[in-house]
Amino acid sequence: MFNYPVTLTPDGDSLLVTFVDVPEAITFGMDERMKEVHESAAYDKWFRAQVQEALDDPRPAVSHEEVKKEFAALRADIDRDRLAR
Question: Using an 8 Å Cβ cutoff, are 17 and 8 in contact?
Fold first, then answer.
């Protein structure tokens, strides 16, 4: 089972559940077990939407080699900045 950092806020007789890393995923729970079920479902819904959005993206795919090249350049910039300090 996965663990995700959440913020629990009392809201009347239930708990408002928000995700620290995924502000779009918001749900409610009546007790601890329901909170766990709802937070898992909310995260799953958000994650699936992100995957579908990526699949539906009309832009051309970027090759693995191109991504590696771009990140190597970014790492080199970061390393150069660190050495300059």
Answer: yes
pLDDT in tens, 22-48: 777 777 666 666 667 667 777 888 889
**Confidence at 67, pLDDT banded by 50, 70, 90:** very high
Q: Are 32 and 16 in contact (CB under 8 A)?
A: no
Single pTM value for the model: 0.42
- Residue 13 zone, left/alpha/beta (φ > 0; ψ -120 to 50; rest): alpha
Domain boundaries, the chain: 6-84
Contacts 24+ apart (CB under 8 A), 7-14: 8/35
